[in-house]
Automatic annotation (TrEMBL):
<feature type="transmembrane region" description="Helical">
    <location>
        <begin position="133"/>
        <end position="158"/>
    </location>
</feature>
<feature type="transmembrane region" description="Helical">
    <location>
        <begin position="37"/>
        <end position="65"/>
    </location>
</feature>
<keyword id="KW-0472">Membrane</keyword>
<feature type="transmembrane region" description="Helical">
    <location>
        <begin position="77"/>
        <end position="95"/>
    </location>
</feature>
<feature type="transmembrane region" description="Helical">
    <location>
        <begin position="101"/>
        <end position="126"/>
    </location>
</feature>
<keyword id="KW-0812">Transmembrane</keyword>
<protein>
    <submittedName>
        <fullName>Uncharacterized protein</fullName>
    </submittedName>
</protein>
<feature type="transmembrane region" description="Helical">
    <location>
        <begin position="164"/>
        <end position="182"/>
    </location>
</feature>
<keyword id="KW-1133">Transmembrane helix</keyword>
Length: 195
C-alpha cells in the first residue's frame, strides 16, 4: 500500500477506536446522578460524536473502496449522516424492529453520497445486481442481529465503560465493513464514480 492509499485505512481505524472511546465515556459510572442539564449536554455530545464518526467512516470507507487518497468531505454526506443518526434515534424509540431497514437504506445512500453521487443512486444496485444486493441485505441483517447479541453480551459481562467500549468498537468494525461492501457493490455497477 502506498502512503496515500494507506491514509484512508488509518483514518478508518482511528475513527472506529476514537468513536468507541467517546461513546464509552458517555457510559461512565455516575453520569446518571448528575444534574439533568449536564446529562442532556453529555447525551448531545454523544449524538454529535456519533454523527461525526458516521461521516468520517463513510468518507474513509469510500476512499478505501475506490483505492484512492482521501478527497474532501462532501456536503451531502454531512446532511445524510445527520438524517441517519436522527432516524435511527427516532426508530429505536418508536419501533426498534425497524432498525435494520434504516441501516439498509443508509448502506444504499451513504457510499454514493460520500463519492459525490445523489442519495438515490445507491438503490440502483437492486436493479443492476439484484442477487448480490439481496445477498448484501441478508448479510447486513444477520450482522445487525449479531451486533444486538454482542451489545447484550457486552452489557451482561462487561458493564459500564468497558462494555460500552467493546460494544461501540464492534459496531464501528461491522459498520465499516458493511459500508465498504456496499460501496464496492455500487462501484461494480458504476454507481459511485463521482460526477
Amino acid at each position: 500500500m502506498s502512503g496515500g492509499r494507506s491514509i484512508p485505512w488509518l483514518v478508518l481505524a482511528a475513527t472506529i477506536v476514537v468513536g468507541a472511546v467517546l461513546q464509552a465515556v458517555s457510559a461512565a459510572p455516575g453520569l446518571g446522578r448528575m444534574p439533568t442539564w449536564l446529562f442532556a449536554v453529555a447525551a448531545a455530545g454523544s449524538v454529535v460524536a456519533l454523527w461525526l464518526q458516521l461521516v468520517a467512516t463513510a468518507w474513509a470507507a469510500a476512499a478505501v473502496t475506490a483505492r484512492a487518497p482521501l478527497g474532501r468531505v462532501r456536503g451531502g454526506l454531512w446532511a445524510w449522516a445527520a438524517v441517519a443518526v436522527a432516524a435511527t434515534g427516532v426508530v429505536a424509540v418508536v419501533f426498534p424492529l425497524a432498525l435494520p431497514l434504516i441501516a439498509i437504506v443508509m448502506l444504499c445512500v451513504l457510499p454514493g453520497v460520500a463519492a459525490g453521487r445523489s442519495a438515490v443512486s445507491g438503490f440502483a444496485v437492486f436493479a443492476r445486481t439484484t442477487w448480490r444486493a439481496v445477498l448484501a441485505v441478508v448479510v447486513a441483517v444477520i450482522a445487525i442481529v449479531v451486533s444486538w447479541v454482542v451489545a447484550l453480551l457486552a452489557g451482561f459481562f462487561l458493564t459500564g465503560t468497558l462494555g460500552a467500549f467493546a460494544m461501540w468498537l464492534w459496531f464501528g468494525l461491522v459498520g465499516s465493513a458493511l459500508l465498504m461492501w456496499w460501496g464496492r457493490l455500487a462501484a461494480r455497477t458504476g454507481l459511485t464514480a463521482p460526477r
